[in-house]
């Protein structure tokens, strides 16, 4: 986790500016997420500066928004005006919550940047209620255009920790292989193709 944490701590202050260019894709994503979280208890992992949590909190009953980076959480707390939204520093591989605590877990643009994403999915499964929903939108870099590949190259030079490279189809297959039924998916147009995935626990 160390490598990822130092990169995000260093870049916390400029993260929102970096994400601005994908505002349209994110607006589309918020529209997809809001009905799912309506009046629900939500856990968000890798919240960064809290962009998603702040845009959907009015729909939810309560959101616990977490990140491994203390600097990211400090940024997120700065303009949090909702009593329904709580930010904290947590490790997504060892969450402090009881089994089956949440109706919805959101992990956005994080599974491709952590080592062993399947372990993160196991921990999500533990804290999610049996009938709960996982929302896992992720940049799927392999489907890149030439300009996307150039961007990915420079991000790598800057120290961006990319551990998994998936096409949209490979990413959805990865979720299924790890015990999730994908009930809804869409590819949103952004700097990199953004694969929105809404999942439930696979029936054994």
TrEMBL record:
GO terms for molecular function: S-adenosylmethionine-dependent methyltransferase activity. It comes from the Bacteria. Residues 43-135 form the Methyltransferase type domain. Pfam families: Methyltransf_11. Signal peptide: none annotated. Keywords: Methyltransferase, Transferase. The keyword Transferase applies. One of its GO terms (biological process) is methylation. InterPro entries: Methyltransf_11, SAM-dependent_MTases_sf. This is Methyltransferase type 11.
């Amino acid at each position: 986790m160390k490598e990822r944490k130092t990169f995000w701590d260093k870049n916390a202050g400029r993260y929102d500016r970096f994400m601005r260019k994908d505002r349209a894709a994110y607006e589309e994503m918020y529209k997809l997420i809001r009905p799912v979280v309506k009046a629900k208890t939500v856990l968000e992992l890798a919240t960064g500066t809290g962009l998603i949590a702040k845009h959907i909190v009015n729909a939810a009953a309560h959101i616990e928004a977490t990140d491994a980076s203390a600097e990211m959480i400090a940024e997120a707390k700065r303009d949090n005006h909702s009593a329904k939204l709580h930010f904290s520093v947590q490790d997504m591989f060892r969450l402090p919550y009881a089994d089956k605590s949440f109706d919805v877990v959101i992990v956005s643009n994080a599974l491709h940047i952590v080592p062993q994403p399947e372990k993160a999915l196991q921990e999500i499964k533990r804290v999610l209620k049996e009938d709960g929903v996982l929302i896992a939108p992720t940049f799927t870099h392999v489907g890149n255009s030439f300009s996307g590949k150039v961007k990915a190259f420079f991000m790598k030079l800057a120290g961006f920790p990319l551990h998994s490279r998936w096409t949209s189809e490979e990413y959805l297959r990865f979720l299924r292989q790890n015990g999730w039924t994908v009930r809804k998916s869409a590819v949103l147009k952004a700097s990199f193709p953004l694969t929105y995935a809404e999942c439930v626990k696979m029936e054994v």
